[in-house]
Structure formats: structure tokens, C-alpha cells
Amino acid sequence: MSRAPAVAGVLAATGRGVADLTRWLATLFSRSLQVRIVVLTVVLTLVAIFGVGTYMTQVIARGLFESKLSVVSDQTNTYVAQVESVAAEDDLGEALTVQLQSMFSRSPSPLRSISLEPRDANSSVLPLTVLDTVQGSPRVEELPEDFRQQVSESVTDQQRYTSISLAEGEETPGLVVAQPLSVPGAGQFDLYVIADLSEEQATLDFVTRAAAVAGVVLVVLVGAVGLLVSRLVVTPVRTGSEVAREIADGDLDRRMPVPGRDELSQLAQSFNDMADSMQEQILRMERLSVLQRQFVSDVSHELRTPLTTIHIASDMLYESRDEFDASARRSAELLNSQVDRFEQLLGDLLEISRYDAGAAELVVHPHDLREIVTGVVETVMVVADRSGTQVRVHAPTAPVMAELDRVRVTRVVRNLVVNAIEHGDGRPLDIHLASNAEAAAVSVRDHGVGMSTEHVEHVFDRFWRADPSRKRTLGGSGLGLAIALEDAHLHGGWLQAWGELGEGSCFRLTIPRRHGQAITTSPLPLPPADAAPRAALVAGPTSSDGSVRIQTGSIPIVVDVSAEEQGARTGQEDERDG
């Protein structure tokens, strides 16, 4: 009883080992072109050798059999003539026995037996058999019944033959040739000649072994040739793949070796020429990009001083506007608003230039996202009331804490809320807050015109607007979402967008709760839970939380509920998720 679990454990371990080996071989076959070439070459060679070897073996076996059959058939004809020439004597049985022994001993090919069977059961001559006393031979009555029936129905000079096994339970082939004859004074007889095919079988076995050895040698040689050829082809390909990977990682000076002048060397040279051209273009674009960033930064800084002077002057004119006539008063108001807008654009340009230069820094402290969202909502309430937009904040009663830069996150949330008001067509605006163990999130959902697939693809591009002709209440530079995306990345988080024409849009900001922590999921769904269940495009970094596929189910919304209600709802959600 104690050995059974041990045996079962050994069998289970063996099964796991075989499964692991199978998976490893499958992985190696699927990932290595060289292995596939060698394996396929060897397999196809084995199939070809097996097919050709089988055909040749059958042809040789048939040739040996037919050659032996021809020899034994000629002998049988000779034996029939000799038996029929025996003169009728008083002791005919003795004479026939002597004749059979003489034929058997003088046979040019190895025989097992010669038998003479009378067709008449009342014949004066009994059945006679001369056989090899050492190896033995099957008797006539042991031959197949259908064969003996055919022989008995045969006419003079008509031969019948069949192949048999000479020893029961052994693979010793034999050949039986039978022919009717007539003995003067004794009547009709059937002559059975049983020949030994051991020599032919030995020849066939030798040929088979030789073909098998030749096949093994050929498979090894073909496998070696396949390995050599595959190495000649795969090695440059593998080198090219490694060089391309290093170039993609930023090593633009990496090149492929060009060892000769063959096709692969020409391919390597073409690859190097392409890499040279790409490096030149990339360096040129980098220089242009540096010059562009430097230009924007210089212009932005240079405009700061005159803009400050203009702003002071416009403020003075704006404060004194009541002393002007209607036309001058309107001009002062327009001047003041446009200077504010110009200053905002200049600030955005400076912020973008800091990101491009890698000079942007975070000032991280623990903050409650609810306070940030509440503050933003209060600042835009006047604009929301003017457009008839109802802003609804859905937040848990517990703080949504995260380590963040309050100024930058406030700017992101304000940008998202302002955009939602601008494009919401006066319909309700929903702001959701939630958190999980690793991340905190804010989603801003409007139910306005929405966005097409093209809009979603370009929504974070600089200076891009979905509808430039739309009347804007709060101005805008076209850099707001681009800066918001940079702010999210600077926090190590995500800013993702979803939209459908006629169904509105949703922007989701997800940041880690602890600065520097990697996030893999967001506590809020995107597309939003109230979106139609169909395929939708989501812009922003790909994440493992389902942001690139439809998610259904309710999102965690708690608005001004008691702690008891909050605990009950959390327990229901945990039970549903479980």
C-alpha cells in the first residue's frame, strides 16, 4: 500500500517533465527559423527515403519471388516429365519413390519436399513424399484448402502456385508449385514441389538493412546541409534583427557587417544605407526640433517684458473705461480680454517649452482629490450656469488621497471640466472620483456632441481643435490637453479619452496614490459605464485595466451618503466582484 503513492508521484513527475519538454520544443520550433528549416528538411527527407525505400523493397521482393518462381516452375515441368516416364512395373510405388528421391537430391535449388498425391482415393499407389529430414516441410494436407482445391480442378500442364510459411510461428518463407500429371498404369496424380525462399529472404533483408543504413546516413547529411544552409541564411537575418533592435533603442551608429558581395551582403549594404539615411533624417529633425523649441522658448521669454507693459496699460484703460464713450469703452474691454488670452497662450507656450527641455518638475504632497475637484467646480460655476450646464460630482465620502502636484492636477481637472462645458451643449456634466489600492482617478463625462474616431485620435495633439468654428466661452490656445497629458505623464499616470458622436465624451485621469508607484488598473472604467456596449476607440496609453475594450457595470458612485450606507454598498460591490 505504501508504494502506490510513490509510484503515482513518479508518474505525475514524469508526465510534467514530458509536458514541459513538449512545450519547450514547441516554443523552440515556433521561435527559431533555423530549427524549423532543419526539422522540416529532416522530416521531408525521412518521408522521401521511407517512400522510395518501401517502393524499392517491394520491387526487389517481387523480382526475387518471380525469379524463384520461374526456376521452380521449370523444375516442376522437368519433374512431371520424369515421373510420367516411369515404366509400369510390379512395384510402381517403389519406382516412384526412387524417382522422387533422385529428383530431390539432384535439385539445383534448395527444396523442402516433393510430394505425389493420387487423385483417385482407390489408387494402388499411396501418397508419396520426399522431404528435408533436417529442416522439415509442411505436408500436403497442411497446405491451404482453397489452394489444394484449385490444384485438384486443374488440367494437365496447368500449374498452380502459392507462397506459404514453412515453419509455424516463424517467418520462413516458402513457395509451393503444383501440377497435374498422368502415370501410365496408375492414373492421375498431383505433383507438389515446396521450395525454400530463405536465401531470397536473406538477400531482401540485406538490401533492406543497407537501404536503412544509407537512409540514416543520408538524413544526417541532409540535416547537416540544412543546418549549414540555414546558418548561412539565418545568421545575417539574426544579425540584422539585433542591429535593427539596437537602432530602435537609440544606437543610431550601429551597422550590419558586409562580408562579401552575394545577395545577403547586398541586403546588409542596403540596410546600412537605409540606416545612414534614417540617421541623417533623425539628426536633422532633432536639430530642427531643438531650434524650434529654442525659438519658442526665446520668443516666449522675450515677449514676457513687453506683454507685462501692455498688460499694465490695458488694466489702466480697463479701470478707466467708464470715462470713455461707448466705442472706446468697448475697445478697452476687448483689449483687456485679448491681452489676458495672449498671456494665457504665452504661459502655455512656456510650459510646453519646459516639458520639451525636460525642465518640468513636480512639487508632490498628499492631497485629497475631492478638494481639488470641488475648487475647480466652484471657479467654473459662473460659466456653467451661463451655458445651462448642471455639474454633478460623484465622490465617496472618504478622502481620495494621493501624492500629487496640486497646481498641475488642478490645471488638468480645470481643463477637462472647461472643455466638457464648452462641448456639452448645456447637458448635465458628471465628474466621478474613485480610488483603489494603487491609483486614484477622476473622470469627466459630458453628454454633448461627442467625438468621432478621427477626433479621438488627435485629441491630445498640440494646437488641434475638433471644431475651430465653435464659439468658445473661455478662450483657449489649443495646448490645454497636450499640457494636461504631459502633467499626467509627469505624475507617472494616464490621461485617456473616449468619445462617440451623439453620445458625448469622457476623459479619465489616473495617477498613482504614492509618487513613483507603477499603476496597472484604474478604479474608473473607460469607456464609461453608461456608454453603449459597442467597440470604441480610447486615446491615451494602453493599460491592462480594459481601457481599450468595452466595460459594463456600474461605477462606484456615492453622493452624500452616511458611513453605514457606504459600508453596505462597498460590501455589495465586493460580493459582486467576487
Automatic annotation (TrEMBL):
<keyword id="KW-0597">Phosphoprotein</keyword>
<keyword id="KW-0418">Kinase</keyword>
<keyword id="KW-0812">Transmembrane</keyword>
<feature type="transmembrane region" description="Helical">
    <location>
        <begin position="35"/>
        <end position="56"/>
    </location>
</feature>
<feature type="domain" description="HAMP">
    <location>
        <begin position="231"/>
        <end position="283"/>
    </location>
</feature>
<dbReference type="InterPro" id="IPR003594">
    <property type="entry name" value="HATPase_dom"/>
</dbReference>
<feature type="domain" description="Histidine kinase">
    <location>
        <begin position="298"/>
        <end position="515"/>
    </location>
</feature>
<keyword id="KW-0902">Two-component regulatory system</keyword>
<keyword id="KW-0067">ATP-binding</keyword>
<feature type="transmembrane region" description="Helical">
    <location>
        <begin position="206"/>
        <end position="229"/>
    </location>
</feature>
<dbReference type="InterPro" id="IPR003660">
    <property type="entry name" value="HAMP_dom"/>
</dbReference>
<dbReference type="InterPro" id="IPR047669">
    <property type="entry name" value="MtrAB_MtrB"/>
</dbReference>
<dbReference type="InterPro" id="IPR003661">
    <property type="entry name" value="HisK_dim/P_dom"/>
</dbReference>
<dbReference type="GO" id="GO:0005886">
    <property type="term" value="C:plasma membrane"/>
</dbReference>
<dbReference type="Pfam" id="PF02518">
    <property type="entry name" value="HATPase_c"/>
</dbReference>
<protein>
    <recommendedName>
        <fullName>Sensor histidine kinase MtrB</fullName>
        <ecNumber>2.7.13.3</ecNumber>
    </recommendedName>
</protein>
<dbReference type="InterPro" id="IPR036097">
    <property type="entry name" value="HisK_dim/P_sf"/>
</dbReference>
<dbReference type="Pfam" id="PF00672">
    <property type="entry name" value="HAMP"/>
</dbReference>
<dbReference type="InterPro" id="IPR036890">
    <property type="entry name" value="HATPase_C_sf"/>
</dbReference>
<dbReference type="InterPro" id="IPR004358">
    <property type="entry name" value="Sig_transdc_His_kin-like_C"/>
</dbReference>
<keyword id="KW-0472">Membrane</keyword>
<keyword id="KW-0547">Nucleotide-binding</keyword>
<keyword id="KW-0808">Transferase</keyword>
<keyword id="KW-1133">Transmembrane helix</keyword>
<keyword id="KW-1003">Cell membrane</keyword>
<dbReference type="Pfam" id="PF00512">
    <property type="entry name" value="HisKA"/>
</dbReference>
<dbReference type="GO" id="GO:0005524">
    <property type="term" value="F:ATP binding"/>
</dbReference>
<dbReference type="GO" id="GO:0000155">
    <property type="term" value="F:phosphorelay sensor kinase activity"/>
</dbReference>
<dbReference type="InterPro" id="IPR005467">
    <property type="entry name" value="His_kinase_dom"/>
</dbReference>
<dbReference type="InterPro" id="IPR050428">
    <property type="entry name" value="TCS_sensor_his_kinase"/>
</dbReference>
